[in-house]
# Entry
Amino acid sequence: KQWYQRRVPLRPGYSLYNAQYADFFEALGEIEGFLKSDSILAPHTNYYVREMRIRSYAQLLESYSSLTVNYMANSFGVSEKFIDRELSRFITTGALNAKIDKVGGIIQTNRPDKKNWQYQAVIKQGDLLLNRIQKLSRVITI
# Structure
């Protein structure tokens, strides 16, 4: 029986939309089982599950400037140790914009400043352009 002939639950979408993260993680486990059973989709299962976890963590973190590790663990129905490990991994790779205060048990979100990023990009491009013009002027004067 093919995976697409099976009834794939719609629960993950609804639970993520309604911010029911514990239900979302349970449903994601069901989806993971479906994906692993298919020989074509099995190699992509870990990537899909990781990206969906990142999406759910980001959705919760967007709502707050800071929250406790305990609150987040309870929201997802997992242990604090699991949340700490997962968030640490995703923060270090740049997938999530947050900081973890392990002493206080607090997760602080740091939203990237879009205007500052655009300014830095313009400055960088301007420097590259000036360097190219200088190299070109050296070639022309020789």
